[in-house]
Amino acid sequence: MPIDRIWSYAPGSGHVEGRDLTGYTVVASDGTIGHVDRQADHFGMRHLVVDTGVWVFGRSVLVPVGVVTAIDAGNRRITVACTRGEVKAAPRFRTDSETMDPQYLTSVGEYYHSLPPRETSAT
């Protein structure tokens, strides 16, 4: 996958332009990550800021929308193509100003882009 695709919703993900995803539950392949606190698009780098609650000691994580595999509006649920551990190991998100820092966003994109591809299971 080209690196720029990490910042774009995949075709077939269920993304609808203009839909507010705030409050949606974010689920990895091995469990819940948290809920969407906000969504942003700075420098063409679309991402979600996910509040992890107590899972990662109450901190938020930044997730590029390119890892979103499914958006279920009815259940207000977003599925991502990575594990909880992979999300936890991503470059640390500390302040809102980082969502507007191209260097930080690039490092996050490179991290998620380097993850092994996941096959979607047909269950």
From TrEMBL:
<dbReference type="InterPro" id="IPR014747">
    <property type="entry name" value="Bac_photo_RC_H_C"/>
</dbReference>
<protein>
    <recommendedName>
        <fullName>PRC-barrel domain-containing protein</fullName>
    </recommendedName>
</protein>
<dbReference type="Pfam" id="PF05239">
    <property type="entry name" value="PRC"/>
</dbReference>
<dbReference type="InterPro" id="IPR027275">
    <property type="entry name" value="PRC-brl_dom"/>
</dbReference>
<dbReference type="InterPro" id="IPR011033">
    <property type="entry name" value="PRC_barrel-like_sf"/>
</dbReference>
<feature type="domain" description="PRC-barrel">
    <location>
        <begin position="17"/>
        <end position="81"/>
    </location>
</feature>
